[in-house]
Design goal:
The complex is a heterodimer of chains A (248) and B (78). Chain A is built from 7 helices and 7 strands; from the N terminus they run E-H-E-H-E-H-E-H-E-H-E-H-H-E. Chain A has helices at residues 15-26, 40-53, 67-79, 104-132, 153-173, 198-206, 216-227; strands spanning 6-10, 30-35, 57-61, 86-89, 135-140, 178-185, 238-241. In chain A, helix 1 links the parallel strand 1 (6-10) and strand 2 (30-35). In chain A, helix 1 (15-26) runs parallel beside helix 2 (40-53) and helix 4 (104-132) packs parallel to helix 5 (153-173). The longest helix of chain A has 29 residues, at 104-132. The relative contact order of chain A is 0.15. With 78 residues, chain B is mainly alpha-helical. Chain B has helices at 3-15, 35-49, 55-60, 64-72. In chain B, helix 1 (3-15) packs antiparallel against helix 2. The longest helix of chain B has 15 residues, at 35-49. The chains are: A alpha/beta (248), B mainly alpha (78). The A-B interface holds A 71, 74-75, 78-79, 120, 123-124, 127, 130-131, 175 and B 36, 39-40, 42-43, 46-47, 50, 52, 54-55. Bound molecules: NADP nicotinamide-adenine-dinucleotide phosphate. NADP nicotinamide-adenine-dinucleotide phosphate is lined by residues 11, 13-17, 35-37, 63-65, 90-93, 113, 140, 142, 185, 187-188, 190-193 of chain A.
Chain lengths: 248, 78
């Protein structure tokens, strides 16, 4: 589905991000795998995936809250003079806390990663895609940005903002043949949920039809679909992949 | 090609101008320099000088002369 396409994935060191790198490679795509923390395990994982599927995968490190670091990284990618076919924004941070227990500084911190810097990286990459007159952007939002739940003020509203941004940006970039879609996963088995008490997780799962978490690969499959030409007539959409949690 | 020639060429090619009065060129001053043309100009300049402009500079890039000033920030002397 992505043969010889070049893809930037942020949050590539995370559960969904790494599964996405793997799925892209399995589908013949090359990857700039961007994450914040450099570990031997991450580098080894990328190497193994690249060897297994015969594609190139490059590790790129930046903290999204450091704009100049992020800009330098994207500039270096652009200087390679390859086409950038897809941007997958899978970096994200979570905060669970009631409204009365959410400081404004925490709210800003969550928005910084989940919204403002997602916009910034889209601006940088979209400008490169505009020259090519093609591209696909996939923003990993969340069902938390659609449903309203107690304790999700910071995270949910940042994801709701990202969903809005994906829709409005899709209208502006369509003239350049760039599609922009959002994905709204439900609970997924990654380190992001490790600190949520089991009883709380169970409550959410009980509300869904399939009553289980997603594997990161199931989310990655949907990302690859939105990234590829298989979804060539889709833009400005929010694809919900949640085992029947919303509207069930 | 000198930096000035590259700079002028970006304007001429983007806005399809043959022999313009460069110093008078302004955003929205010629038909092709609208918001879409603006991004094409930025792309042409970024390509020509291997730079990546900040969003604030893209917004401030309101004329041919202002652009020369802005490019100095990216170590491009015109
Ligand atoms: N897991 C779920 O249940 C779930 C459900 C819906 C949506 N999502 C969304 O899916 C996306 C991926 O989440 P995940 O479950 O894979 O979580 P994860 O395993 O915690 O991975 C998050 C990734 O984002 C990176 N990241 C966080 N802050 C960053 C920063 N300031 N700069 C650069 N990178 C940063 C992390 O890098 P480090 O490793 O260096 O921290 C990591 O690679 C997120 O946007 C999340 O909100 C997750």
């Amino acid at each position: 589905m992505l043969k010889n396409k070049n893809v930037i994935v942020t949050g590539a060191g995370g559960g969904i991000g790494l599964a996405t790198v793997n799925k892209i490679a399995e589908n013949g795509g090359n990857v700039w795998a961007c994450t914040r923390t450099k570990t031997e395990q991450f580098e080894q994982d990328l190497q193994n995936i690249a060897n297994q599927y015969g594609v190139w995968i490059k590790a790129v490190y930046f903290d999204m809250t450091n704009e100049s670091q992020m800009k330098t990284a994207i500039k270096e990618i652009s200087l390679e003079k390859r086409s950038i076919d897809v941007l997958v924004n899978a970096a994200g941070t979570v905060y669970n806390g009631m409204f009365t227990m959410t400081s404004i500084s925490k709210l800003k911190e969550v928005f910084e990663v989940n919204y403002f810097e997602q916009i910034y990286i889209m601006q940088l990459v979209a400008r490169l895609m505009m020259r090519q007159k093609k591209g696909s952007i996939v923003n990993v939002a969340s069902v938390s940005g659609i449903e309203t739940t107690e304790g999700k003020l910071a995270y949910g509203s940042s994801k709701a903002a990202l969903i809005y941004a994906s829709k409005t940006i899709s209208k502006e970039l369509a003239q350049y043949n760039i599609r922009v879609n959002a994905l709204a996963p439900g609970l997924t088995d990654t380190k992001m949920n490790k600190e949520i008490p089991d009883a709380d997780l169970q409550k959410v799962l009980d509300r869904s039809s399939m009553k289980r978490m997603a594997n990161p690969e199931e989310i990655a499959n949907a990302i690859v679909f939105l990234a590829s030409d298989q979804s060539s007539f889709m833009t400005g959409q929010v694809m919900v992949v949640d085992g029947g949690r919303l509207w069930s | 090609m000198t930096n000035l020639e590259k700079y002028n060429q970006a304007f001429c090619e983007t806005f399809e101008l043959a022999n313009p009065d460069f110093d008078s060129l302004q955003y929205m001053g010629v038909e092709q320099w609208d918001s879409v043309g603006h991004m094409s100009l930025v792309a042409a300049l970024e390509d020509a000088f291997d730079i990546m402009m900040d969003t604030d500079d893209i917004i401030d890039f309101s004329s041919y002369l202002k652009g020369k000033e802005i490019l100095k920030k990216y170590e491009v002397e015109i």
